Amino acid sequence: MIPINVTKMHCGGCANAVTRAVQGIDPAARVEFDLKSGSVSVTPGVAIAAERFADAIRAAGFGAETVSRAV
């Protein structure tokens, strides 16, 4: 799972746009949202760098930053 903080995402239409952006680079990716916190969790279907998902979300007009996870 890849956590991404997304800004300017306020409604279901925004969530659909983010999903289309993510699945545009990985059609098998599963995308989960928390609209209140602006967080998105991407479960990739193939090995793709987290930053590529954030780039795709930014290209769709949203702010996006990957979240570092402590190991």
Description:
The model has no long low-confidence stretch (mean pLDDT 93). This protein is α+β, with helices and mostly antiparallel strands. A hairpin with a 4-residue loop joins strand 2 (30-34) and strand 3 (39-43). A four-stranded antiparallel sheet has the order 2-3-1-4, with helices on one face. Helix 1 packs across helix 2. The chain has a single domain, classed as 2-Layer Sandwich (Alpha-Beta Plaits). It has two helices and four strands, in the order E-H-E-E-H-E. It has helices at residues 12-25, 50-59, and strands at residues 2-7, 30-34, 39-43, 63-66.
Topology:
Layout: E1 2-7, H1 12-25, E2 30-34, E3 39-43, H2 50-59, E4 63-66
Antiparallel strand pairs: 1-3, 1-4, 2-3
Considering the chains and any ligands shown, give keywords for the structure.
alpha+beta; 71 residues; four-stranded antiparallel β-sheet; 2 helices; globular; Alpha-Beta Plaits
Class based on secondary structure composition and strand pairing: alpha+beta
Q: Using the coordinates above, name the CATH class.
A: Alpha Beta
Q: Kindly identify the CATH topology.
A: Alpha-Beta Plaits
| CATH architecture annotation name | 2-Layer Sandwich
Number of helices: 2
Strands ordered across the widest β-sheet: 2-3-1-4
Low-confidence stretches: none
Query: Cα distance, first to last residue?
Result: 14 Å
User: Taking all residues together, what is the mean pLDDT?
Assistant: 93
Total strand count, please? 4
Radius of gyration: 11 Å
Order of helices and strands: EHEEHE
Number of domains: 1
- Overall body shape: globular
Strand content: 25-35%
